[in-house]
Amino acid sequence: MLQRELTREQAVQAGEQLLVFAEGSIIERGYSYFSDGVVFNTRVEKGKLLTSDVQGSQVYHVELDLEDIQNSTCTCPYTRLCKHMAATFFQMYSVFENPRHYLTRAQQPRRAKFSPAMLVPAYKNLSLPSPQEGTAVQSPLKPDSPVHEWWTFLENWTRNLPSAMETYRASSELLSSFQNVLGVAAAWPPARAQLFTVHANVFHLLKLQDFVKTNRQSYWFQDLSQTAERLLEQLEGTLFYMDIEDLRERHHELLEQTMLTVKKMKDTESTALYWTFAYQLLWWNLLQVSDWIQAEINDLDQRIKDPSTATSAKEVYKLLRAHFYVMEGADDAAIQTWRSNSRLSLSFYLPYLKMFARNEDWPRFLAWTEALQSLIGSADPQNYQLVAAIWQEAMERVGRGEECGAMLKQFLPSSFHEYAAYLYEQKQFRQWIDLQMSYQVPITEVITVQFKEMEDTHPTLLFPLYLREVNRLIAERNRSAYKEAIKLLKKIRTAYSKANQEARWERYVDQLGAKHNRLRAFQEELKRGNLNL
């Protein structure tokens, strides 16, 4: 059916766009969904719109725009190109091409391209259940109930949650508890309902940290860390889409109660720093009242100066205080405070970097990336790609786009593939070789087209790579590796010959044979290859 309504060119074009704008992990997860056979009801509308239903945690409806992939939509909470869209793409692509080959391409290092969608929170504003659909949760809370009653109710709501998390999959139980309790506010005024969502989110985040602190089972660590990150991403989305002005004008008393609740978060005892992310997001997005901010600054300063404050608590207060430096525009003081804490990775700074970019404050963004070079250079691929794409956009916006290629060096090793491509494009071949050598890149992982061109045009520059690879193979001390070394030695001999350096080749192979004269198997392979002198 799809083969009659679409063309191979449409599938290929959509695939090229997906490679530019979708995260690699998203494409991989989409392939898994496609392979599991959970994409159904796939059809073409208007000749360019591919629609489908995808079974995830529930059934999601996808509309894939084949002409402009960024206009695609999905009913899941993710705001960007999602795994359900990728799965729908693979369903179509498999009709025309081998999807496994496409996945292999997607897994290769590639440069991310800036899109405004990168600056939008990863998850949409959570839609509250409709009471007309029978999803409202029975509770003693009323629309005008104060915040402290919300937290009392949440404590009662989750009284059995810790035991359920121990018995079943902890992350699923926690997220289900959070999603289900939102039904309490289904019939409330929108602003109050959104604020209840914020409190429910923070409450479950703190509950998660209590659970980890109490149980300390290491095999839960990665799963629950991802759950904490998911809650924070959803909190960011809720705050991003909230009508803050309406909340301040019509529900000021609730906002003030929220402020008092957030202030108490400073007393949280946890080895994890996830709650500090929530604390910073709330002050940055929700509690922008000058008197409240100044009172919180004074409280933090007093705690930091108090000699009776424990050292561990004082360090936390300093981290929190640094957030208000940013709000005051004292970025250097904030970064200096945070950089003294080795536990803070690039992800800690991402909300600030994205906020500067949303506000198109490009000089401020670039000043931060300069200060955070080492963290960007050691970040995980997804965070690096995000920051690097925004950084290149910022450089273009301030008229420095032509400097980007050379400046990629500051973000090594994360920028290795991009910087190597730049050096090659600029024909800086010696620097390109030095980069490969510095990072111990095996010959088998060097891009084939580039390597072949170097063999034909600048063979002598490749000698260090060749010789290092030969030494590596010999060091493996097995017959198979020796045979591979002989194949490479024959290639090296040809390269020396092209460079009119036969005498140098003879000295090298003679020294190599003498150095490893006790390796009988290697000597035998040298003889078989007619390489021994």
Question: Can you give a write-up of this model?
Answer:
The protein is mainly α. 64% of the residues lie in helices and 4% in strands. It contains 28 helices and four strands. Strands 1-2-3-4 form a four-stranded antiparallel sheet, covered by helices on one side. A hairpin with a 3-residue loop joins β2 and β3 (59-65). α8 runs parallel beside α10 (221-241). The termini are far apart.
Q: TL;DR of this structure?
A:
The chain is mainly α and 533 residues long.
Mean pLDDT: 89
Largest sheet: 4 strands, antiparallel
SS field, number of helical segments: 28
In percent, how helical is the residue content? 55-70%
Termini Cα gap: 66 Å
Rg is 29 Å
Q: Record the strand order, biggest sheet.
A: 1-2-3-4
Structural class from helices and strands? mainly alpha
Which key phrases capture this entry?
533 residues; mainly alpha
How is this fold's topology laid out?
Layout: H1 2-5, H2 8-21, H3 24-35, E1 39-45, E2 49-55, E3 59-65, E4 73-74, H4 83-96, H5 99-106, H6 147-157, H7 161-167, H8 170-181, H9 190-215, H10 221-241, H11 244-250, H12 252-264, H13 274-285, H14 290-305, H15 311-328, H16 331-339, H17 346-358, H18 362-371, H19 373-377, H20 381-397, H21 404-407, H22 416-425, H23 429-438, H24 448-457, H25 463-475, H26 479-498, H27 502-515, H28 520-528
